[in-house]
Amino acid sequence: MSRPVLRNLVALVIGMLFGAGLLLSGMTQPAKVLGFLDWLGAWDPSLLFVMGGAVVVYAIAYRLILRRKQPLLADAFVLPSRSAIDAKLIGGAALFGIGWGLGGYCPGPSIVSLASGALDAIVLVAATAAGMWIASRFERVA
Question: Considering the entire predicted model, what is its pTM?
Answer without folding.
Answer: 0.74
